[in-house]
Structures are given as C-alpha cells and as structure tokens.
Amino acid sequence: MTKMGKKKELITCRDVLWLLVLCGFAINYMLRLNLNLTIVAMVIPYPKPAAVAQCNLENSTSTVDVWINETSQDDNASFSFPITTSSFTNVTYKDRFAWNEYEQGMTLGAYYWLHWISQLPGGLLARRYGTKRIFGLANLLTALLGFLIPYVTHLYALIILRVLQGLIAGVIWPSMHDMTAKWIPQNERSRFVSAYLGSSLGAAVTYPLCAAISNSFGWGASFQVTSLLGVIWFCFWHFLVYDSPQQHPRISNDEKNYILDNITGSVEDEENAQIPWRSIILSGPVWVTIIAHWGTTWGLFTLMTQAPTYFNFIHGWNINTTGILAGIPHLLRMIFSYFFSMLSDWLLRTRRMSLTNVRKLATFVCTGVQGIIIVALGFSGCHPLLAIIFMMTGTAVNGAVSASTLANFVDLSPNYASVLLGFAGMIIIWAGFISPAIVGALTNNNQTVGQWRWVFLIAAANSIASCIIYMIFGSSKEQPWNQYAKLNTKEREMQDLTPMAAKRDNDAGNADDTEKSNFIKER
After folding, report:
1. What's the Cα-to-Cα distance from 126 to each of 131, 410, 442, rounded to whole Å?
2. Could you tell me if residue 3 is left (phi over 0), alpha (psi between -120 and 50 degrees) or otherwise beta?
3. Which helix or strand (DSSP H or E) is residue 92 part of?
C-alpha cells in the first residue's frame, strides 16, 4: 500500500484483508442461508398462523395484518389477499411444493450432513496449499452449485445439491485461522476475527434480498443472484489477497516488519511439520473451548435457520416482512461483534484483564446471556413484539463469539489454529443438522406455540450449560505443544550431539585412566 513520507498508512494490507475476509464470510453465509428464507416461498403456506389460532388474537379476519402475494396458475395474474382459512380454499400455488415440516427440516439440515467431514481437511489443506486458494475456491464452487438449484424440481435432488454445497464449504472456516495466525498480532486478533462475523452481514443481507427477489422474480432468482455475488467476490479475493506478509508484493516494509515482530509462537516453515494429534485430542483447554463453541453455535443455528419458518408459521408474516425481521438481528450481531472485539482488545492492551478472563467475559455474553434471552423468546410466543425483541437481542449478543471461542483457538495454538478449528468443526457442525431435525420432529404437522417453546428451551439449555463449563475450566494459555516442531528439532539436535558427547566422555575417561596408570608406574 502507498505511503506518504513517514505518515501512517491510511489503508494497510491488514485492512484490505479484513474487508475481503468480511465479504468472504458474508458470501459463505449468503450461499448457506438463501434456502432458509426462500423455502417460505417454495412451500404451500399454512391456512392460519399458529399464534392467531391458539392465542385468540383475532376478532375478525381484518385484525390479522398478514398479506401474501401469489400468482394464480389459471390466469397467471398476481394478486394479494389476507391469510384466512377460506382464503386458501380455491387457490392453486404455482411452483410450490407440498413438503411437510419433516421434509423441510431435512432440506434445511442437508447442508450440514457432510459439512463436518471437510472441517479438519480444511485446516490441513490451508496449511499445505494456503488459505487464499482453499478459502477462495470453496466459496467459488459453492456459488457455482447454487446456480443449479432453481432447475431442481425433486426434493431429493435438492438435498443432494445442498449436501455437496455443505461438503465443499466445510473447509472455509478452519482454513481462515491459518491466515489469521500469520497476519494478525495477538493484540489485534479479536478485532480481526470480527471479520468472521461477515457471516452475520451475509445473513442480514440475504434474508431481505431473497425475500424481495423471490417476491418480484420468483424464488429461483434468489439463488442466481447470491451465486453471482459469490463469483464477483472471488475475483477481488484472487487478485488482492496473499497467504502471508512475506508473499504480498504491495505491502510496506513498516507493516511487514510490524507483523513479523509481533506475531508470537508462529513458525513460517511449519506447513509440512508433523501435527501433535495426541496432544490436541487429549488437551483439556481444547475440549472446553469446543464445548463452549457448541453451545453458542446451537443457539445461533436455532435463531438463524428457524427464524423465517417461525415468523411465517407462528406469527403469519409474509415473506417480505419475514425477510426483514430475520435479517436485522444479524446486522446487529455484526455491529455488536465489532465493538465488543474492540473492547476486548482494549482490555488486553491496557492489561485491565488477563487474556483468559477476556475470553471468559466474551463467552459469558455469547453463551450465557444468549441462553437466557432464548428462554425468554420461548415464552413470548403469543406476543410478536416481544418475540422480535428477543430474537434480535439473542442473535446480536452472539457476536461476542469473535472475542470468545473463535479467537481462543488461535490463543491456544497459533501454529495449529486451523487444525484446531477444523477438529472442533467436525464436532460442532453436528448442531447444524441436529437442530433442524429436532425442529422438524417437534413441529411436524404440529405448528404450535408450545412446540416451538420446546425448540427454544433445548437451544437455551445447550448455551447455558456450555457457558458454565467454560467459566469454570476455560483457559487461553498457549499450550506447550504449540512449539511441537521446535521441540522436535531440539530433540533431534540433542540426539545428534549425544554420540559426540559420549565419545568425548569416553576419550576423557581413557585419558584419565592413562594418567592414573602412568602415575602408578612412576610410583
């Protein structure tokens, strides 16, 4: 980047990297979540919202301000009508599927069926081939598969496409940790990892965007637009991002030296080094971090994946309203993440809190506070305004994860951060398809406020339990096996020196014996 004399750079290479990582994770979530909202326009709606039917909110059909734009199959003319039981009697839905809740849950969860398998390979591939290649190509291939979805007309064909997308995209999150460890000093790590919360930006944009596109051009167009955005992002990523400061052709010497001088515990030539699998698998701090990440992920997946279905079936809002209400919480999550990460970095720089306590504070917010809010959401079924407030705040506080478990994996081992996140992802991602499976089982032909309360209480239990465990046992101390490659080198050097040392000792011993023998002879 250009400099003016000795003045500070206005835009550093780390700033550019942060922006493109932010957009990359946004694209990742756009391609992941577009079905969550679009499925509302793909399936035949319920005749009456559950909250209206069960909470006695309606006095007449006019009190339910819920409108859906539909197209008649007979004359292909668009019209609007309020949701009432009689409204659905003689309406034929064009390009809609008669999928029940179980089939919808299976479709939404299909993305995660094989997503876990590629988590660990993602970390390993990034170490070998670089984050630039792995992260970039995974987003690109997922986008290209997205172009095919509108042409799929069978449930199982759609499921297969979603499974393939999830399998390919599984490398994305763990691969980025390798680049973070090489580019970002520890006291900037919380803020940089907030770029991972570009996922929230993607969700905030995807829901209203897909709603507007589906309403205007049909649900198939939403997949085409999100995939096109993925291809455009890849072009910028390919030409502007490099795997390490040493490889970047436009980085200033000041910035490069600053990065290299302030990155602790990372070894540049470690890509091909042996990985201490036994130490990682038996590491208590790693498992405690995984447990905490499980809780915050389960809560987020419940709020993120099920929000459109919940607002549509329970409160009866149309697709545009649902898109906006489902998207805004994720924008708040992104904003909360950025400012909370800045607070975390400030606490570290000023030494007001230790690294472990900063991570515990962040984990308390994104798991404990999130769990309490989800409990409140579960008991707000008949009050849509409260449901909106709790949905927004519950999603927003999850943004603290950027200064919590996500950053903690790098703290525990900068050298093997991508491996740790990949290993954790193999376990955590199961929440991605267990959660919608539970929702499908609980609400199949039973869309009631009470059943959705159980959905939220199960999510809250996961969050709160993981919070308690991390508060007691969590640690951010760099693990001894982070220097595994260096320790092995020293051990080899000692082994190489051992025969020489033994020979010297043997020679010295022989000399002493000779001296003693000569002395005795002289005597």
Report:
1. 5, 15, 39
2. beta
3. none
**CA distances (Å), 103 to each of 100, 308, 326, in order?**
5, 16, 22
Place of tokens 């260096």: 486
Residues 284-295 have pLDDT tens digits of 999 999 999 999
CA dist 214 → 37, 154, 276, 323 (Å)? 10, 19, 49, 11
**Bridge partners (DSSP) listed for residue 81:** 68
pLDDT digits (tens, 9 = 90+) for 37-56: 788 778 766 665 556 556 65
Nearest in space to 414 (alpha carbons), one of 245, 251, 102, 178: 178
Question: How does DSSP assign 310-333, residue by residue?
Answer: HHHHTS---HHHHHHHHHHHHHHH
Whether the Cβ atoms of residue 125 and residue 236 lie closer than 8 Å to each other: no
Q: Which residues of 42-57 are buried (b: 16+ CB within 10 A; e: fewer)?
A: bbebbebbbbbbbeeb
- In angstroms, the CA 20 to CA 15 distance is 9
For residue 239 the two structure tokens come to 């030409």
pTM reported for the whole predicted model: 0.68
- Helices assigned H by DSSP within 6-154: 13-42, 50-55, 101-109, 119-129, 131-146
